[in-house]
Specification:
By secondary structure, this protein is mostly beta strands. Strand 32, helix 4 and strand 33 form a beta-alpha-beta unit. The radius of gyration is 24 Å and the shape is elongated.
Amino acid sequence: MRNNRDQGGTTLTRRDLGLGLAVGALLPLPARAARLFDVRAFGAKGDGRAIDSGAFNAAIAAASRASGGIVLVPAGRYLCFSIELKSRVTLQLAKGAVIEAADPARHPGRYDAPEDADQLYQDFGHSHWRNSLIWGMDVEDAAITGPGLIHGLGLTRNGPGARWKARTGERPLSMRGMTRAQIAALEPDVSAMRGMGNKAIALRNGRNIRLAGFSMLKCGHFAILATGTHKLTIQDLTIDTERDGIDLDCVRDALVENCRVNTPNDDAIVVKASYALGRAIAAERVTIRRCAVSGYDLGTMLDGTRRKTQIVAPDRDRVTGRIKLGTESNGGFRDVLIEDCSFTHCRGLALETVDGGVMEHIVARRLTMRDVTTAPIFLRLGDRRRGPPGTGVGAIRDIAISEVEANGIDHRYPAAIAGLIGHPVEAVTLRNIHLTYDGGGNAADAARRPEELADAYPEPSMFGTLPAWGLWVRHARGLTIDGLVLATATPDARPPISVEDAAATAVSGTPLWRGRD
Protein backbone atom coordinates (compact mmCIF):
# COMPACT_ATOMS: atom_id res chain seq x y z
CA MET A 1 0.00 0.00 0.00
CA ARG A 2 1.43 3.39 -0.99
CA ASN A 3 0.55 6.93 0.07
CA ASN A 4 -0.70 9.15 -2.70
CA ARG A 5 -0.79 12.60 -1.15
CA ASP A 6 -1.51 14.50 -4.34
CA GLN A 7 -4.89 12.76 -4.62
CA GLY A 8 -5.64 12.86 -0.90
CA GLY A 9 -5.84 9.09 -0.66
CA THR A 10 -3.98 5.82 -0.46
CA THR A 11 -3.38 3.52 -3.40
CA LEU A 12 -5.01 0.11 -2.98
CA THR A 13 -3.96 -2.82 -5.12
CA ARG A 14 -5.34 -6.35 -5.28
CA ARG A 15 -2.46 -7.47 -3.05
CA ASP A 16 -3.76 -5.19 -0.29
CA LEU A 17 -7.18 -6.81 -0.04
CA GLY A 18 -6.01 -8.87 2.92
CA LEU A 19 -6.33 -5.76 5.10
CA GLY A 20 -9.89 -6.56 6.11
CA LEU A 21 -11.60 -5.48 2.89
CA ALA A 22 -13.39 -8.49 1.41
CA VAL A 23 -13.15 -8.88 -2.34
CA GLY A 24 -16.90 -9.56 -2.53
CA ALA A 25 -17.64 -6.27 -0.76
CA LEU A 26 -16.07 -4.16 -3.52
CA LEU A 27 -16.94 -3.38 -7.08
CA PRO A 28 -14.52 -5.08 -9.48
CA LEU A 29 -11.26 -3.16 -9.38
CA PRO A 30 -10.01 -1.71 -12.66
CA ALA A 31 -6.73 -2.87 -14.11
CA ARG A 32 -4.98 0.10 -12.52
CA ALA A 33 -4.93 0.50 -8.75
CA ALA A 34 -7.93 1.81 -6.83
CA ARG A 35 -7.42 4.48 -4.18
CA LEU A 36 -8.50 4.27 -0.57
CA PHE A 37 -9.89 7.35 1.22
CA ASP A 38 -10.35 7.04 4.98
CA VAL A 39 -13.04 9.42 6.28
CA ARG A 40 -10.92 10.03 9.40
CA ALA A 41 -8.22 11.58 7.24
CA PHE A 42 -10.82 14.16 6.19
CA GLY A 43 -11.80 15.04 9.75
CA ALA A 44 -14.45 12.48 10.73
CA LYS A 45 -14.49 11.79 14.48
CA GLY A 46 -16.75 8.77 14.73
CA ASP A 47 -17.57 9.61 18.34
CA GLY A 48 -21.38 9.84 17.99
CA ARG A 49 -21.30 13.55 18.92
CA ALA A 50 -19.53 15.47 16.17
CA ILE A 51 -21.33 15.95 12.85
CA ASP A 52 -19.26 13.96 10.36
CA SER A 53 -21.18 14.38 7.11
CA GLY A 54 -18.82 17.16 5.97
CA ALA A 55 -15.87 14.78 6.25
CA PHE A 56 -17.77 12.04 4.40
CA ASN A 57 -18.64 14.40 1.56
CA ALA A 58 -15.05 15.64 1.37
CA ALA A 59 -13.72 12.09 1.16
CA ILE A 60 -16.25 11.16 -1.53
CA ALA A 61 -15.44 14.32 -3.50
CA ALA A 62 -11.72 13.51 -3.33
CA ALA A 63 -12.36 9.99 -4.56
CA SER A 64 -14.48 11.37 -7.39
CA ARG A 65 -11.75 13.83 -8.42
CA ALA A 66 -9.31 10.91 -8.49
CA SER A 67 -11.60 9.17 -11.04
CA GLY A 68 -12.93 6.85 -8.38
CA GLY A 69 -11.94 5.02 -5.24
CA ILE A 70 -13.02 3.41 -2.00
CA VAL A 71 -14.14 5.63 0.87
CA LEU A 72 -13.45 3.66 4.02
CA VAL A 73 -15.58 4.12 7.15
CA PRO A 74 -13.70 2.48 10.05
CA ALA A 75 -15.35 1.32 13.27
CA GLY A 76 -17.06 4.14 15.15
CA ARG A 77 -20.39 5.95 15.30
CA TYR A 78 -20.65 8.72 12.73
CA LEU A 79 -23.41 11.28 13.20
CA CYS A 80 -24.38 12.61 9.76
CA PHE A 81 -26.75 14.74 7.79
CA SER A 82 -26.90 14.27 3.99
CA ILE A 83 -24.08 12.40 2.25
CA GLU A 84 -23.92 12.61 -1.55
CA LEU A 85 -22.77 9.47 -3.35
CA LYS A 86 -20.84 10.03 -6.58
CA SER A 87 -19.93 7.95 -9.60
CA ARG A 88 -17.12 5.39 -9.39
CA VAL A 89 -17.05 5.60 -5.58
CA THR A 90 -17.55 2.72 -3.15
CA LEU A 91 -18.59 3.65 0.39
CA GLN A 92 -17.23 0.79 2.52
CA LEU A 93 -18.62 0.40 6.07
CA ALA A 94 -16.19 -1.64 8.13
CA LYS A 95 -17.26 -3.96 10.92
CA GLY A 96 -18.35 -1.83 13.87
CA ALA A 97 -18.99 1.24 11.69
CA VAL A 98 -22.36 2.93 12.24
CA ILE A 99 -23.64 5.87 10.20
CA GLU A 100 -26.32 7.47 12.37
CA ALA A 101 -28.84 9.85 10.83
CA ALA A 102 -28.69 13.12 12.75
CA ASP A 103 -31.87 14.72 14.06
CA PRO A 104 -32.27 18.41 13.08
CA ALA A 105 -34.37 18.92 16.19
CA ARG A 106 -31.42 17.90 18.40
CA HIS A 107 -28.29 18.39 16.34
CA PRO A 108 -26.82 21.46 14.59
CA GLY A 109 -27.48 21.12 10.89
CA ARG A 110 -30.09 20.00 8.39
CA TYR A 111 -30.60 17.58 5.54
CA ASP A 112 -30.22 18.73 1.95
CA ALA A 113 -33.31 20.51 0.69
CA PRO A 114 -35.76 18.44 -1.36
CA GLU A 115 -35.62 19.31 -5.03
CA ASP A 116 -38.52 21.11 -6.67
CA ALA A 117 -40.76 18.34 -7.97
CA ASP A 118 -44.37 17.80 -8.90
CA GLN A 119 -45.95 15.37 -6.50
CA LEU A 120 -49.39 15.39 -8.07
CA TYR A 121 -49.51 11.64 -8.62
CA GLN A 122 -47.41 10.29 -5.74
CA ASP A 123 -46.55 11.36 -2.24
CA PHE A 124 -43.63 13.47 -1.02
CA GLY A 125 -41.43 10.50 -0.23
CA HIS A 126 -41.59 9.12 -3.78
CA SER A 127 -41.04 12.57 -5.33
CA HIS A 128 -37.80 13.67 -3.65
CA TRP A 129 -34.35 12.18 -3.14
CA ARG A 130 -31.90 14.79 -1.83
CA ASN A 131 -33.52 15.03 1.61
CA SER A 132 -31.97 11.70 2.60
CA LEU A 133 -29.11 10.40 4.67
CA ILE A 134 -27.30 9.07 1.57
CA TRP A 135 -28.41 10.13 -1.90
CA GLY A 136 -27.20 9.97 -5.46
CA MET A 137 -28.45 11.45 -8.74
CA ASP A 138 -27.38 9.93 -12.08
CA VAL A 139 -24.65 8.01 -10.29
CA GLU A 140 -22.82 5.28 -12.21
CA ASP A 141 -20.49 2.45 -11.18
CA ALA A 142 -20.89 3.05 -7.44
CA ALA A 143 -21.50 0.95 -4.35
CA ILE A 144 -22.27 0.96 -0.64
CA THR A 145 -20.96 -2.14 1.10
CA GLY A 146 -20.85 -3.58 4.60
CA PRO A 147 -20.61 -5.10 7.09
CA GLY A 148 -21.44 -1.94 9.05
CA LEU A 149 -24.82 -0.44 10.04
CA ILE A 150 -26.91 2.48 8.79
CA HIS A 151 -29.06 3.67 11.69
CA GLY A 152 -31.72 6.15 10.60
CA LEU A 153 -32.40 7.39 14.10
CA GLY A 154 -32.97 11.04 13.13
CA LEU A 155 -35.08 10.37 10.02
CA THR A 156 -38.84 10.92 9.94
CA ARG A 157 -41.28 8.33 8.67
CA ASN A 158 -43.79 11.05 7.74
CA GLY A 159 -44.34 13.37 4.79
CA PRO A 160 -47.11 15.09 2.82
CA GLY A 161 -49.31 13.03 0.52
CA ALA A 162 -50.04 13.50 -3.16
CA ARG A 163 -52.21 16.39 -4.32
CA TRP A 164 -54.40 13.68 -5.82
CA LYS A 165 -56.52 12.92 -2.80
CA ALA A 166 -56.60 9.25 -1.83
CA ARG A 167 -60.26 8.55 -1.20
CA THR A 168 -62.78 6.08 -2.51
CA GLY A 169 -63.81 7.51 -5.86
CA GLU A 170 -60.63 9.60 -5.92
CA ARG A 171 -60.18 11.89 -8.89
CA PRO A 172 -57.53 14.50 -9.72
CA LEU A 173 -58.01 17.96 -8.27
CA SER A 174 -58.94 20.34 -11.06
CA MET A 175 -57.23 23.71 -10.57
CA ARG A 176 -58.75 25.47 -13.56
CA GLY A 177 -60.36 28.72 -12.49
CA MET A 178 -58.91 28.58 -8.98
CA THR A 179 -57.10 31.52 -7.38
CA ARG A 180 -53.47 31.26 -6.24
CA ALA A 181 -54.64 31.14 -2.64
CA GLN A 182 -57.03 28.29 -3.40
CA ILE A 183 -54.30 26.33 -5.18
CA ALA A 184 -51.86 26.95 -2.33
CA ALA A 185 -54.42 25.63 0.14
CA LEU A 186 -54.47 22.33 -1.77
CA GLU A 187 -50.68 21.93 -1.97
CA PRO A 188 -49.03 19.48 0.43
CA ASP A 189 -47.20 21.28 3.19
CA VAL A 190 -43.73 20.66 1.75
CA SER A 191 -42.29 23.49 3.86
CA ALA A 192 -42.82 21.34 6.93
CA MET A 193 -40.17 18.93 5.57
CA ARG A 194 -37.46 21.55 5.10
CA GLY A 195 -34.32 20.47 6.91
CA MET A 196 -35.68 17.01 7.66
CA GLY A 197 -34.65 13.70 6.14
CA ASN A 198 -37.03 10.83 5.45
CA LYS A 199 -34.97 8.19 3.61
CA ALA A 200 -31.75 6.37 4.42
CA ILE A 201 -30.63 5.71 0.82
CA ALA A 202 -32.21 7.41 -2.21
CA LEU A 203 -31.14 6.98 -5.82
CA ARG A 204 -32.56 8.80 -8.81
CA ASN A 205 -31.62 7.30 -12.16
CA GLY A 206 -28.04 6.03 -12.36
CA ARG A 207 -26.71 2.63 -13.38
CA ASN A 208 -24.39 -0.14 -12.23
CA ILE A 209 -24.99 0.38 -8.52
CA ARG A 210 -24.44 -2.23 -5.83
CA LEU A 211 -25.69 -2.22 -2.22
CA ALA A 212 -24.34 -5.18 -0.29
CA GLY A 213 -23.51 -6.65 3.06
CA PHE A 214 -24.66 -4.01 5.58
CA SER A 215 -27.56 -3.67 8.01
CA MET A 216 -30.18 -0.93 8.32
CA LEU A 217 -32.29 0.03 11.35
CA LYS A 218 -35.19 2.49 11.72
CA CYS A 219 -34.77 4.26 8.40
CA GLY A 220 -37.76 6.60 8.10
CA HIS A 221 -40.20 6.49 5.19
CA PHE A 222 -37.89 4.37 3.03
CA ALA A 223 -34.80 2.43 3.92
CA ILE A 224 -33.94 2.28 0.20
CA LEU A 225 -35.67 4.13 -2.64
CA ALA A 226 -34.30 3.59 -6.15
CA THR A 227 -36.15 5.41 -8.93
CA GLY A 228 -35.33 4.92 -12.61
CA THR A 229 -32.12 3.07 -11.77
CA HIS A 230 -30.66 0.57 -14.26
CA LYS A 231 -28.54 -2.44 -13.36
CA LEU A 232 -29.07 -2.25 -9.62
CA THR A 233 -27.88 -5.08 -7.38
CA ILE A 234 -28.96 -5.38 -3.73
CA GLN A 235 -27.43 -8.32 -1.88
CA ASP A 236 -27.09 -9.66 1.64
CA LEU A 237 -28.77 -6.76 3.44
CA THR A 238 -30.52 -6.96 6.80
CA ILE A 239 -33.19 -4.25 7.13
CA ASP A 240 -35.45 -3.63 10.14
CA THR A 241 -37.38 -0.41 9.68
CA GLU A 242 -40.54 1.63 10.35
CA ARG A 243 -42.02 1.78 6.87
CA ASP A 244 -40.94 0.53 3.43
CA GLY A 245 -37.79 -1.53 3.25
CA ILE A 246 -36.69 -1.73 -0.40
CA ASP A 247 -38.63 0.34 -2.96
CA LEU A 248 -37.76 -0.27 -6.61
CA ASP A 249 -39.59 2.36 -8.67
CA CYS A 250 -39.34 2.32 -12.47
CA VAL A 251 -36.13 0.27 -12.29
CA ARG A 252 -34.72 -1.99 -14.99
CA ASP A 253 -32.41 -4.98 -14.71
CA ALA A 254 -32.51 -5.10 -10.92
CA LEU A 255 -31.58 -7.96 -8.61
CA VAL A 256 -32.48 -8.29 -4.92
CA GLU A 257 -31.14 -11.44 -3.31
CA ASN A 258 -30.32 -12.92 0.08
CA CYS A 259 -31.89 -10.02 1.97
CA ARG A 260 -33.82 -10.10 5.25
CA VAL A 261 -36.36 -7.29 5.52
CA ASN A 262 -38.63 -6.69 8.53
CA THR A 263 -41.30 -3.98 8.16
CA PRO A 264 -44.35 -4.34 10.44
CA ASN A 265 -45.90 -1.06 9.24
CA ASP A 266 -45.40 -1.18 5.48
CA ASP A 267 -44.10 -3.23 2.57
CA ALA A 268 -40.78 -5.06 2.88
CA ILE A 269 -39.79 -5.37 -0.79
CA VAL A 270 -41.95 -3.51 -3.28
CA VAL A 271 -41.69 -2.84 -7.01
CA LYS A 272 -43.48 0.28 -8.25
CA ALA A 273 -43.96 2.18 -11.50
CA SER A 274 -44.97 5.67 -10.38
CA TYR A 275 -45.05 9.00 -12.19
CA ALA A 276 -42.21 10.38 -10.04
CA LEU A 277 -39.93 11.02 -13.04
CA GLY A 278 -42.67 12.91 -14.89
CA ARG A 279 -43.65 10.11 -17.25
CA ALA A 280 -44.90 6.54 -17.16
CA ILE A 281 -41.95 4.13 -17.02
CA ALA A 282 -42.25 0.37 -16.66
CA ALA A 283 -40.42 -1.55 -13.97
CA GLU A 284 -38.96 -4.47 -15.88
CA ARG A 285 -36.52 -7.35 -15.65
CA VAL A 286 -36.54 -7.47 -11.86
CA THR A 287 -35.50 -10.54 -9.86
CA ILE A 288 -36.17 -11.03 -6.15
CA ARG A 289 -34.78 -14.30 -4.83
CA ARG A 290 -33.79 -16.00 -1.59
CA CYS A 291 -35.18 -13.18 0.53
CA ALA A 292 -37.01 -13.36 3.87
CA VAL A 293 -39.68 -10.78 4.71
CA SER A 294 -41.49 -10.40 8.02
CA GLY A 295 -43.64 -8.18 10.23
CA TYR A 296 -42.09 -8.70 13.66
CA ASP A 297 -42.06 -5.82 16.14
CA LEU A 298 -39.74 -3.04 14.99
CA GLY A 299 -36.11 -3.84 15.71
CA THR A 300 -36.70 -7.37 16.93
CA MET A 301 -35.66 -9.14 13.75
CA LEU A 302 -32.29 -7.43 13.90
CA ASP A 303 -31.78 -8.14 17.62
CA GLY A 304 -32.98 -11.73 17.22
CA THR A 305 -35.92 -11.64 19.67
CA ARG A 306 -38.59 -11.66 16.89
CA ARG A 307 -41.43 -10.37 19.04
CA LYS A 308 -45.07 -10.24 17.89
CA THR A 309 -46.75 -7.79 20.25
CA GLN A 310 -47.80 -5.33 17.51
CA ILE A 311 -51.17 -6.42 16.17
CA VAL A 312 -52.08 -3.88 13.48
CA ALA A 313 -50.27 -1.62 11.02
CA PRO A 314 -51.15 2.08 10.60
CA ASP A 315 -53.69 1.18 7.90
CA ARG A 316 -55.57 -0.81 10.61
CA ASP A 317 -54.97 -4.14 8.93
CA ARG A 318 -52.68 -6.61 10.60
CA VAL A 319 -48.90 -6.14 10.28
CA THR A 320 -47.50 -5.79 6.77
CA GLY A 321 -43.96 -6.90 5.80
CA ARG A 322 -44.67 -8.49 2.40
CA ILE A 323 -43.41 -8.57 -1.20
CA LYS A 324 -45.60 -6.49 -3.50
CA LEU A 325 -45.91 -5.11 -7.02
CA GLY A 326 -47.80 -1.78 -6.87
CA THR A 327 -49.61 0.24 -5.67
CA GLU A 328 -48.12 3.05 -7.81
CA SER A 329 -48.47 1.50 -11.24
CA ASN A 330 -48.60 4.09 -14.04
CA GLY A 331 -45.81 2.50 -16.06
CA GLY A 332 -46.66 -1.13 -15.41
CA PHE A 333 -44.53 -4.19 -14.67
CA ARG A 334 -42.88 -6.63 -17.02
CA ASP A 335 -40.68 -9.70 -16.62
CA VAL A 336 -40.51 -9.94 -12.85
CA LEU A 337 -39.29 -13.10 -11.10
CA ILE A 338 -39.88 -13.77 -7.38
CA GLU A 339 -38.47 -17.08 -6.18
CA ASP A 340 -37.31 -18.99 -3.11
CA CYS A 341 -38.57 -16.39 -0.64
CA SER A 342 -40.12 -16.74 2.81
CA PHE A 343 -42.88 -14.68 4.42
CA THR A 344 -43.22 -14.85 8.22
CA HIS A 345 -45.80 -13.10 10.44
CA CYS A 346 -46.79 -10.78 7.60
CA ARG A 347 -49.08 -10.32 4.64
CA GLY A 348 -48.66 -12.50 1.56
CA LEU A 349 -47.73 -11.84 -2.05
CA ALA A 350 -49.61 -8.88 -3.61
CA LEU A 351 -49.69 -8.09 -7.33
CA GLU A 352 -51.61 -4.88 -7.99
CA THR A 353 -52.05 -2.47 -10.88
CA VAL A 354 -54.58 0.35 -10.48
CA ASP A 355 -53.09 3.37 -12.29
CA GLY A 356 -53.30 2.31 -15.94
CA GLY A 357 -50.16 0.21 -16.22
CA VAL A 358 -49.94 -3.30 -17.68
CA MET A 359 -48.60 -6.10 -15.49
CA GLU A 360 -47.38 -9.06 -17.53
CA HIS A 361 -44.91 -11.93 -17.56
CA ILE A 362 -44.68 -12.31 -13.80
CA VAL A 363 -43.39 -15.51 -12.19
CA ALA A 364 -43.56 -16.26 -8.46
CA ARG A 365 -42.40 -19.70 -7.34
CA ARG A 366 -41.17 -21.66 -4.36
CA LEU A 367 -42.58 -19.38 -1.69
CA THR A 368 -43.16 -20.36 1.93
CA MET A 369 -45.43 -18.43 4.29
CA ARG A 370 -46.03 -18.79 8.03
CA ASP A 371 -48.53 -16.84 10.14
CA VAL A 372 -50.03 -14.94 7.19
CA THR A 373 -51.79 -11.80 8.41
CA THR A 374 -54.05 -11.21 5.38
CA ALA A 375 -54.33 -13.07 2.03
CA PRO A 376 -51.48 -15.36 0.97
CA ILE A 377 -51.96 -14.38 -2.68
CA PHE A 378 -53.73 -11.21 -3.86
CA LEU A 379 -54.08 -10.12 -7.49
CA ARG A 380 -55.98 -6.88 -8.09
CA LEU A 381 -56.73 -4.95 -11.25
CA GLY A 382 -58.30 -1.67 -10.15
CA ASP A 383 -59.41 1.63 -11.60
CA ARG A 384 -57.83 4.32 -9.43
CA ARG A 385 -56.20 6.01 -12.48
CA ARG A 386 -53.95 8.24 -10.42
CA GLY A 387 -52.23 9.74 -13.44
CA PRO A 388 -52.50 12.47 -16.07
CA PRO A 389 -55.56 12.95 -18.29
CA GLY A 390 -55.94 10.00 -20.63
CA THR A 391 -54.88 7.41 -18.05
CA GLY A 392 -57.01 4.34 -18.63
CA VAL A 393 -57.59 0.98 -17.03
CA GLY A 394 -54.53 -1.22 -17.01
CA ALA A 395 -54.26 -4.99 -17.36
CA ILE A 396 -52.93 -8.06 -15.57
CA ARG A 397 -51.97 -11.04 -17.73
CA ASP A 398 -49.57 -13.93 -17.98
CA ILE A 399 -48.99 -14.56 -14.28
CA ALA A 400 -47.55 -17.88 -13.09
CA ILE A 401 -47.60 -18.68 -9.36
CA SER A 402 -46.37 -22.10 -8.30
CA GLU A 403 -45.04 -24.13 -5.40
CA VAL A 404 -46.48 -21.99 -2.64
CA GLU A 405 -46.94 -23.42 0.85
CA ALA A 406 -48.65 -21.21 3.42
CA ASN A 407 -50.18 -21.86 6.83
CA GLY A 408 -51.62 -19.94 9.74
CA ILE A 409 -53.58 -17.74 7.30
CA ASP A 410 -56.13 -15.23 8.62
CA HIS A 411 -59.48 -16.90 7.90
CA ARG A 412 -61.09 -13.73 6.54
CA TYR A 413 -58.90 -13.47 3.47
CA PRO A 414 -58.57 -16.36 1.01
CA ALA A 415 -56.25 -16.21 -1.96
CA ALA A 416 -57.98 -13.69 -4.23
CA ILE A 417 -57.99 -12.75 -7.90
CA ALA A 418 -60.11 -9.66 -8.51
CA GLY A 419 -60.50 -7.89 -11.83
CA LEU A 420 -63.13 -5.43 -13.01
CA ILE A 421 -66.32 -5.77 -14.99
CA GLY A 422 -65.18 -5.79 -18.60
CA HIS A 423 -61.50 -5.89 -17.57
CA PRO A 424 -60.70 -9.39 -16.32
CA VAL A 425 -57.41 -10.56 -14.89
CA GLU A 426 -56.11 -12.81 -17.67
CA ALA A 427 -54.01 -15.94 -18.06
CA VAL A 428 -53.15 -16.69 -14.45
CA THR A 429 -51.75 -20.11 -13.56
CA LEU A 430 -51.87 -21.45 -9.99
CA ARG A 431 -49.85 -24.64 -9.77
CA ASN A 432 -49.00 -26.74 -6.70
CA ILE A 433 -50.45 -24.33 -4.16
CA HIS A 434 -50.97 -25.62 -0.58
CA LEU A 435 -52.81 -23.23 1.76
CA THR A 436 -53.90 -23.84 5.36
CA TYR A 437 -56.24 -21.33 7.00
CA ASP A 438 -57.14 -20.78 10.63
CA GLY A 439 -60.86 -21.30 9.91
CA GLY A 440 -63.78 -19.67 11.71
CA GLY A 441 -66.03 -18.24 8.99
CA ASN A 442 -69.77 -18.41 9.60
CA ALA A 443 -72.96 -18.61 7.53
CA ALA A 444 -73.28 -14.83 7.38
CA ASP A 445 -69.79 -14.64 5.88
CA ALA A 446 -70.76 -17.22 3.27
CA ALA A 447 -73.72 -15.08 2.21
CA ARG A 448 -71.65 -11.93 1.65
CA ARG A 449 -71.56 -10.34 -1.81
CA PRO A 450 -68.63 -7.91 -1.92
CA GLU A 451 -69.03 -4.57 -3.70
CA GLU A 452 -66.95 -3.87 -6.79
CA LEU A 453 -65.01 -0.91 -5.28
CA ALA A 454 -63.22 -0.28 -8.57
CA ASP A 455 -61.36 2.83 -7.44
CA ALA A 456 -60.64 1.93 -3.82
CA TYR A 457 -57.11 1.45 -2.51
CA PRO A 458 -56.16 -2.19 -3.17
CA GLU A 459 -55.73 -4.42 -0.13
CA PRO A 460 -57.03 -7.93 0.64
CA SER A 461 -59.23 -6.34 3.30
CA MET A 462 -60.90 -3.96 0.85
CA PHE A 463 -63.83 -6.36 0.29
CA GLY A 464 -64.19 -7.34 3.94
CA THR A 465 -64.49 -10.97 4.96
CA LEU A 466 -64.87 -12.90 1.72
CA PRO A 467 -67.54 -15.55 1.02
CA ALA A 468 -65.03 -18.39 0.45
CA TRP A 469 -62.26 -19.52 2.75
CA GLY A 470 -59.68 -20.88 0.27
CA LEU A 471 -59.85 -19.15 -3.12
CA TRP A 472 -62.05 -16.28 -4.32
CA VAL A 473 -62.07 -15.29 -7.99
CA ARG A 474 -64.09 -12.54 -9.66
CA HIS A 475 -63.69 -11.13 -13.19
CA ALA A 476 -60.97 -13.35 -14.60
CA ARG A 477 -60.34 -15.12 -17.89
CA GLY A 478 -58.09 -18.03 -18.74
CA LEU A 479 -57.40 -19.09 -15.15
CA THR A 480 -55.54 -22.42 -14.84
CA ILE A 481 -55.57 -24.33 -11.55
CA ASP A 482 -53.33 -27.37 -11.20
CA GLY A 483 -52.57 -28.99 -7.86
CA LEU A 484 -54.49 -26.78 -5.42
CA VAL A 485 -54.71 -28.11 -1.86
CA LEU A 486 -56.72 -26.18 0.75
CA ALA A 487 -57.23 -26.86 4.45
CA THR A 488 -58.62 -25.22 7.59
CA ALA A 489 -57.42 -25.76 11.14
CA THR A 490 -60.90 -25.17 12.62
CA PRO A 491 -64.43 -25.38 11.14
CA ASP A 492 -65.47 -22.82 8.53
CA ALA A 493 -69.04 -22.50 7.22
CA ARG A 494 -68.06 -20.94 3.89
CA PRO A 495 -67.35 -22.93 0.72
CA PRO A 496 -63.64 -23.46 -0.03
CA ILE A 497 -63.81 -21.83 -3.48
CA SER A 498 -65.95 -19.13 -5.06
CA VAL A 499 -65.61 -18.30 -8.77
CA GLU A 500 -67.66 -15.58 -10.49
CA ASP A 501 -67.35 -14.25 -14.04
CA ALA A 502 -64.29 -16.35 -14.84
CA ALA A 503 -64.47 -17.56 -18.43
CA ALA A 504 -62.20 -20.31 -19.71
CA THR A 505 -61.16 -21.54 -16.28
CA ALA A 506 -59.27 -24.84 -16.55
CA VAL A 507 -58.79 -27.19 -13.61
CA SER A 508 -56.29 -30.05 -13.84
CA GLY A 509 -57.30 -32.82 -11.47
CA THR A 510 -59.63 -32.17 -8.57
CA PRO A 511 -58.75 -29.43 -6.07
CA LEU A 512 -58.41 -30.96 -2.63
CA TRP A 513 -59.60 -29.41 0.59
CA ARG A 514 -59.64 -30.60 4.14
CA GLY A 515 -61.97 -28.07 5.64
CA ARG A 516 -63.66 -28.85 8.96
CA ASP A 517 -67.36 -28.27 9.31
